[in-house]
Amino acid sequence: MLEFNPGLIRYDWTEGEIEAIYTAPLTDLVFLAQSVHRAHHESGSVQSCALLSIKTGGCPEDCAYCPQSAHSNAGVGRDPLMELDEVLEAARKAKSHGATRFCMGAAWRSAPQGEEFDRVLDMVRGVGSLGMEVCCTLGMLSEDQAVALAGAGLTAYNHNLDTSPEFYGKIITTRTYQERLETLSYVRRAGVTVCCGGIIGMGETRQDRIGLLRQLAIQNPHPDSVPINTLVRVAGTPLAGQDSVEPLEFVRMIATARILMPASMVRLAAGRMSLSDEAQALCFLAGANSIFLGDKLLTTPNPDADADHSLLSKLGMTLMSEAPPRQDTRSTGED
Ligand code: SAM
Ligand code: DTB
Ligand code: SF4
User: Fold this and answer.
1) Is 236 left (phi over 0), alpha (psi -120 to 50) or beta?
2) The pLDDT value given to residue 7
3) Backbone dihedral angles phi then psi of residue 241, each to the nearest 5 degrees
4) Per the domain annotation, does 138 fall within a domain?
5) Among 49, 59, 132, 197, which residue's beta carbon has the most beta carbons within 10 A?
6) Residue 321's pLDDT is what?
């Protein structure tokens, strides 16, 4: 039986320890994840985040999972950076549907300089003034851009490590793991919270999943939010033919993330279209406390808001009416 102090936050996890957690009997794993969850979070409610693709398609990167890569034949159209008014309209609508966080995604290798970046800063200010948490994912940033986004009131920057350092090169060749870590360090230094997670189902081994979890859990502070995605297999991308992920593997991934990063928000991100209500319920039991609300992620489908409201009502759970208070994700030391 696994035993840990559920209140403790550590960032010195070893692969051996993580493997022992990940592979524990599911009953023990979920019990421990629930104990850790309850020591740090309210149970019974989840945060809802809305996603909007503000610049779509034609990305020069070769991420093998991504329908927006110019290297794929997924047939995603190319849309230039949206206008400020359209984005604010979408944010107001998301808020009226119960979202407390609004995340704007752009298919860029790195955030541009000049008018487009200034427009993004206006979007950040505008969404912030609606009283929502504001998140962006724009690709790599320079240190100055991270500081400018912080100045505009950005709450969080999403930049995923996606997989283990060892498997990464099989998925993306146009940028390195180290470059991802560098952007994350600029974001953290600028005082913006980090949203960082990954994808399962790309052909990686369990050891790669454990390697990813370790890379996330040795960051100090831990990422404030950790999106766990299951690959959405899009025709025309190199990974379209991957086997589907066993839902219980997703549950293990979420439970382990919850145990390693107790104070972080763990987001049940892409892939919910292929999960039953029961599997999603298990993910909540395993410590997921955030979802994307709305019928589209960036370019692929997501359950619609009505389906999610009815799922939560069946589970007797609610959407958080406000963004949760920020927890301290720094280490509390050793036992
Ligand atoms: N271009 C920026 C970047 O890569 O950081 C931001 C947008 S990118 C689409 C955001 C994240 O979406 C990726 O890091 C990846 O983890 C996730 N993603 C993209 N395509 C996906 C897919 N088919 N299935 C699951 N997650 C996906
Ligand atoms: C994250 O980890 N998942 C979201 C968000 N961060 C930006 C994106 C999922 C994208 C799924 C594929 C698509 O819809 O294009
Ligand atoms: Fe571009 Fe981001 Fe898609 Fe990679 S994941 S191809 S960087 S939009």
Assistant:
1) left
2) 78
3) -95, 10
4) yes
5) 49
6) 84
Q: Report which ligand 3 atom has the smallest distance to the Cα of 172.
A: 4
Q: Provide CB contacts within 8 A for 166, sequence distance 6+.
A: 208, 211
pLDDT at 211 over 70: yes
Active site residue 267: yes
161 occurs within a structural domain: yes
Q: Out of 49, 103, 136, 196, pick the active-site residue.
A: 103
From the CA of 62, the nearest ligand is 3
> How many helices and strands (H and E) does the chain possess?
11, 10
Q: How many domains does the chain have?
A: 1
Marked catalytic residue, from 10, 209, 214, 267: 267
Is the shortest distance between the CB of 59 and ligand 3 below 6 Å?
Answer: yes
Q: Which two tokens stand for residue 88?
A: 């604010």
CA distance 191 to 183: 13
Q: The whole model's pTM is what?
A: 0.96
**Alpha-carbon gap, residue 162 to 181, rounded angstroms:** 12
For 232-267, how does the pLDDT look when each residue is reduced to its tens digit (9 = 90+)?
A: 999 999 999 999 999 999 999 999 999 999 999 999
Residue found under tokens 């390693």 = 260
Give the integer Cα–Cα distance in Å for 49 and 268. Answer: 11
Torsion angle of alpha carbons 132, 133, 139, 140, nearest 10°? 140
CATH number of the domain at 277, please.
3.20.20.70
Active site residue 195: yes
> Residues with Cβ < 8 Å from 326, sequence gap 6 or more?
193, 224
Q: Is residue 229 part of a domain?
A: yes
pLDDT of 276 higher than 70: yes
Active-site annotation holder among 49, 101, 188, 195: 195
**CB atoms near residue 265 (< 10 Å):** 26
Q: Which residues of 64-99 are buried (b: 16+ CB within 10 A; e: fewer)?
A: bbbbbbebbebebeeeebbeeeebbebbeebbebbb
Please name the amino acid found at residue 132. M
